[in-house]
Amino acid sequence: MREQKTQTVETVTLLLETKQFKIDKEKLINKSRYFAALFSTSYSDYRLSEHIINYEIPLTSFQDFIDWINNDECENVIITSYKDNLERPLILLELSVLFAVDDLTKYITHILEENLSPEDVLNIWLLAQELGLSVLQDLCLAFCLDRFTELPLCWINKLSRQNFLKLVGNINLRIANVNNAESYLLDIVQGWMKVNQDTIPLDILKKTGPKVFPSIVSCDSSDSSINNEFYIHCWDGDDLFELTTFRYPKDIIENKNTIIGMQISARGYNLYLSGGEFGIGSGRFNKKIWRYSLISKNWFLETTMPCSRRHMIAAFVQNTLLLVGGVGHYRYKLRSVDIYNLHKGTWLKGKDVPMEFVTVPEHYVFEKKLIICDRYAEIPFAYVYNSELNEWDTVKMKPRPSPLLVQVHHLCLEMPKRKNKLVSRYLGRFKLDRINLESSLQTYIAICDNFEHCQEIVEKITAENFGTNEENDRNMYLYFIPSCNNLREDNVLICLKDQKCMVIRLKGKKNLQYYSIPIRNPSKFRSLSFYTRTVFFNLMNPANLHAQSARNLDCTICTHITLRESNVQ
Question: Which residues form the BTB domain (predicted)?
């Protein structure tokens, strides 16, 4: 009879108050740097089988800790307790820091990030500060800045001066769904000052808006392999720099196939992957929407799409994700519109789009509206969707010999297939808005932020090309960008209303002043050479998360807001 080898598991007993907790010693040492040091030969008591825990820890929380060490995880316990009572996972987070269990810290941070809410985020933020957890601090700060108007006012007023300034003084602060953002913020500041009997610098009310970078995703492979490493590059006005890299979530990689027609969109510090088919005609669709956090570098399952789609429009309008048209099962062309509210986690049906498409058409978001251009029609149309009214407006446009491009605040990159050196060119001091890289490797950008003296030209050109509608003020100012070899005098760039962008009339090449910047590591852009059009999207860089709207916010000598007499009384 063959002898069966049995493996003995060495256990230790941890004494908390009067209760004994037995635990696998090897697992405890491997997962906790605290106990690894305690059981090392550096301590005289390292051979003892019992150790007293001299900390005030709730017994249920310490049991959660023991369960996680012994069983590798206690996912169900953490998720259930989070929904029922936030205190339990937060105590477990403190224990992970106390006993230096890094994997448990990361795991609970992941759970907290996935379930952050306006009611709890400030408490979690303050605890993360106490524990020195920088990633969790940044996650909470980003959440607070994005959903500031939803935060409980009573908790805002309890913040320390330093933390209050980190919020209201941050350039990335969003004041959503209020009529007058500056007045609203002033009321918040006045309320905090009254409660805390303190003063706040006046400069915090001067907001420049969040710093957003036009960004693009690419890889060094020409295929659509799900195993590729992807690069995110951002344009900062002077250079196209690499922000970070990522790979698809495991759920997609495990399909072991290419995915076609999946769309990437972005909002704030997050990427969103939606839709796509694992091989055209296979009938196997990705119905999940995945979120990638640039702060924590983690993937999260955001939600499940109401219907299967590929090659659809995926665009954000404020805090809602619009999925428009595309192709469904059996290659059926879809006109349906699904609207996902990020903050509520709910889906709504929108009014059907008036066009069908099998490749993603040119589109952009402006003034809370989604604008789609059907430039392949005999007479070009722009379809304008107002999500607040759930209405589509159709704008008829006159055809022009130069290509019609309608991607304001996005960049379009066309790369030559036979060139391996990539050079981009742009006008000095002009806001980069679109890149057209053709065989000449030249780019002509002529969109700027402020050309008020051209207002009359704007009105004249838009009236001539698109007409006016003074009654309902729905006139959409679209624009043309000439091709690189067609810079004639009558080429015109037409921009949008309210002087957000202005118009420039191109007189010829001799009047264009531009210089070139070589793009580093062009192999990382190889995937783009197989697409005639690639859209840039807007991302926020986590490095700018703590940027303030005013200097020296913590100084004691500065201009202050004084309490309103009505509030003092």
Answer: 10-73
